[in-house]
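User: Predict the structure for this protein chain, please.
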Amino acid sequence: MTNTEFSTLSLDPELIANLTSLEYTRMTPIQAQSLPLLLTGKDVIAQASTGSGKTVAFGLSLLARLDVSQLSVQSMVICPTRELADQVARELRRLARAMANVKLVVLCGGSPTAAQSESLSFGAHIVVGTPGRMLKHLEQGSLDISALNTLVLDEADRMLEMGFAEDIQRVVAFAPKQRQTLLFSATYPEGIAELSRGLQQQPTRLSVADTQQSENIVQLLFEVSPHLRKQALATLLGHYAPRSCVVFCNTKRACQEVAEYLNELGFGALALNGDLEQRERDQVLIRFTNGSATILVATDVAARGLDIKELACVINFDITPDPEVHVHRVGRTGRAGQQGLALSLYSPQEAYRVGLIEDYQDAPIVQGTLSELTNKVAPIVPDMVTLNIAGGRKSKIRAGDILGALTKEAGISGEQVGKIDISEMQSYVAVHRDVAKQALKHLQQGKIKGRIVRVRQI
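Assistant: Here is the predicted structure, written as structure tokens:
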């Protein structure tokens, strides 16, 4: 397909017009490969890295098949984590905003089942969620997918890694056998083929290779003795001073230990792993993405599907045994034309893993020397601070209400107010550190939507 403009696809004019308004004009490689097949109803296994445009590909496909006049669940998107489900739902709503009355419901753990059941009772066209919660609704009868025509498994490799294979099979047992089934995955482990055999009919496999790293990313390796690895990490952070950095660890235990070590040094790192309660996970991600924390220490499973833009640096505290995973870690930086930095620590015993990565990338990685770096630990203090407001969509609070309370009533400049996140029961706003006390005091003493709300700094 030589012409990669969305306008060449057999999509309704309102979808094309909306894509143009979103500044989506030319397809990414995975979109150009998959969409002509998806729009014909073909089953597809598509392999491409995070950030390659997979959501737009399957989103346009399911919207093209959607009959809005029939208020029944026609499309289901299954994701491994709540964060990815929320991200997918936001993108689908953006793609569908030119279509009238499209009802989308998110079904994930961490939110009350009863409220989700009530929402489903009014009908839905699309459901997006995690396997366990979807299965719960199917078994209790609050979710009916007998009219399903499109089933999407997003990040299928991670769902297998997280042990969701059985739940997925049980969910699919409720779906019609005649349907389109799409598997999107960043990697292609052995289990994907087996999963596909049980779900798909003569699928076409597509792959957009990501073995060559972007020219915008500088990769450096640093050899270190195992017992000095944490000190080496602090040296890297002190020398390069990234404004935003994800530190990858191979285990949850290492993730927690590294975050605690960095906090003792004053770096203000946040840990993200599978042991966190959902509200804790939400707050960690909100603080990192709104600039209230500069360092996120995470495992691969916890970090998959995170919507992190303009990430300055990735540090591999642990070298992954899977070269493909290394490529996806590194690919989180240097996006959208930005300059990226990827630093990796390894012990002499792990040199063979480095060799596997270089073979996979078909390119050597430059060797750095820790002793040549500035040996000063000078943590960067984040510019922003996060305030938590005890009220959200359920209380009819909107972003404009919070912004107005801070700018019109408290006299804070709009440039000093950052990202605003609103969930069902909570709201979060990032404010510049210089005005954090003023903002907190005003919100605690004032009102939002005409009522007093509890506000605290997190």
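Residues 4 and 27 are 5 Å apart (CA to CA).
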